[in-house]
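REQUEST FORM: STRUCTURE PREDICTION
Request ID: SP-0412
Submitted by: Lab K.M.
Chain count: 1
Length (residues): 133
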Amino acid sequence: MKYICLGYYNKGKFDGMTEGERNAMYDECFEYDDHLRANGHSAGGEALQPPETALTLYWRDGKVATTDGPYAETKEQLGGIGVLEARDMNHAVQLMGQHPALKYGTIWEVRPAGDMNEIMKASEQRRKVSRGL
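STATUS: Completed
RESULT:
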């Protein structure tokens, strides 16, 4: 089963690290990521650019509106996502609980991926009917 892992970090703490501390953190984290890949537990992931590069979209007064940056102003910012292959939630927690980023203040939110296959099939059928196909 797939689990989406959202990694949150404290920007102030990160900015306060020396280059050597950051490099040590990166090396440790990437080594663990290599371990997850080698054992078939990593199904992908991406780092994110800083929050100030974000644009948040929402619906207001019948049209799309935008706000610069992330929607919520918090100390922790979303720094990246990972897609994990695990047997169940306990296994996913066990795998992410060993991630070295935790020692550096990263908070991991782990959620089961939603399976939209049946909903997508039903929607496709409804759309075919509405188009007379």
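NOTES: The first strand starts at residue 2 and ends at 10.
Reviewed by: T.R.
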